[in-house]
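Why does residue order matter? Because the sequence determines the fold. Keep that principle in mind as you read this record.
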Amino acid sequence: MPLLAQGEFQPPGVRDFFLPPIFGSVTKPMVLVVLSVIIILAFFLLATRNLKIVPSKFQFAAESVYDFSRNSIAREQIGAKDFKPYIPLILTLFTFTLVNNIFGIIPIIQFPTFSHIGFPLALSVLVVYPVYHIAGIRRHGIGGYLKNQLFPPGIPKPIYLLLTPIEIFTKFFMNPITLAIRVFAAMFAGHLILLVFTMGGEYLLLEASAWLKPASIVAWLFAIAMTFLEAFVQVIQAYIFALLSAGYIGAALAADH
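Structure:
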């Protein structure tokens, strides 16, 4: 979609996130989701095919990712007694979100998959949401789980008339939605900012008057700086997505609200 029309700058917008199909009804974000799964599988299979006591750099990288997901996310949020069954899920959520976010700064690819709300929403609603509710029900029984989540102890009973509807809305509706929106909003905004600086620099160089052309260098320098910032945000958002998911599981398993 052209950003230059009759010599006037057309700022990037939502339309630039809806890419035409590659073939049939298959779009670039769909291909990237599949590619991310292949990359993650290949990474861990290659890193673990010849394990050594003194790890190679590749093995060390894989072990570091695993250790971070296991101890810094799952163990911290779910608890030392209950976290082990959920390590594969948390590791998958972290790496899957990270790779799809990082796609946004990879040359040629340059598109963060999670800038389409459908992908993080599906991951949140179809994976994380049922997992933490099922975990809580299996631990406490459905009655005990609902009581634990909706009726916090130590609160005057009349307050439940106000508090319980809020808890229902938060636990069963807003948690999965906000989990998805956090990463979507960050990826969408970051990619849009990069488009503004890169396309703005192109416009200034090709279409602006001579005295404004040097400003294109400034725009591209900002684009480079924002790329590094965006890389940091992409990693942080993957961490937050996995952290909150583990936190929801830990809260569902906890004896108290």
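Helices lie at 28-48, 57-78, 87-102, 118-150, 157-206, 215-253.
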